[in-house]
Amino acid sequence: MQLLLFLSISLIVPSTYQAATSHGSVELDEYSFDKITGKFEASLIKFDVAFPYGDKHDAFVALAKDAKDVDELLVAEVGVKDYGEKDNEELAKKYGATKDNFPVVKLFVKGKTEPIAFDDIKGFTSDELRRFVRENTGLYLSLPGCVRELDKLATKFIKAKTDERKKLFAKTEEVLTNLREKDTVSGKIYKTIMEKVLEKGDDFVKSENDRVKKLLSGKISEEKKKELGMRLNILQSFQIFDKNGKQNKEDL
Length: 252
Description:
alpha/beta, Glutaredoxin, Endoplasmic reticulum protein erp29, 2 domains, about 50% helix
C-alpha cells in the first residue's frame, strides 16, 4: 500500500519526487496536499522556501530519515516560491506560513480540525521534532538514549498491575544482558526507573521528570546536559498517551 501511495506521489510531482524522497521527505503542492496527507494518521509538514538549506532544514531531513519506517507518519515539505507564479504561496498562507516566518512546521493529525504548530523555543532540532511528534500523536519515534525493545517493555510496565510489573522487570533484566555495549548506560536507566516505580509508585515518574527538567534549566556542563537529556527521553517511554497523543488519566 505504501509503495502504491509513493508511486502516486511520483506521478503528481514528477519533477521533485526523486530529490524529495532521497532523504525520506515527500514534496507536496496545493494539488496533492489534501490527497496525500489524508491517507496518514499524522503528517508533519514543513512550509519553507522552494530550495531550503541550513541547520533547520538539516534537522527536518534527519527526522525524515529516522521516521522512514513509521508507516502512520508522513513527513513532507511544501516549497513556496515568491516569484513567477508564486507556487504554493496561498497554501502556505492558509496555515500561517509566509517568507517572514519560514520555516514553519505543522503537525496534521487525523480527526483534528486544526494542525498543531511546532514551537521551536527549545530549539529547532531533530530531537525536538521527534519529541513533538511523539507527544502529540503517541507514534513511536526513537529519541537519543532510547532502546526500542526497552521502550516497549517500559510502556507495558507502566500500564501493568504490580504483579505483572515484577515479571516485566525480570524480563528487562534479561534484555540488559544482551544489550550492545553502547546501550548499556541506557539500559541501567530503564532498570533504575522501574525499581523506583516498584518502590515508590507511579508518582516517581512525574517527580523524576520534573527534577530532571529543573536540573536541565540550570547551569550545567554539556556532558551533564547530554546525560540528563537521555534520562528525560527514557522517562518519556514510561508515559502513556491516548490515540490523540494526550496523556490519559492513568498517566503521570
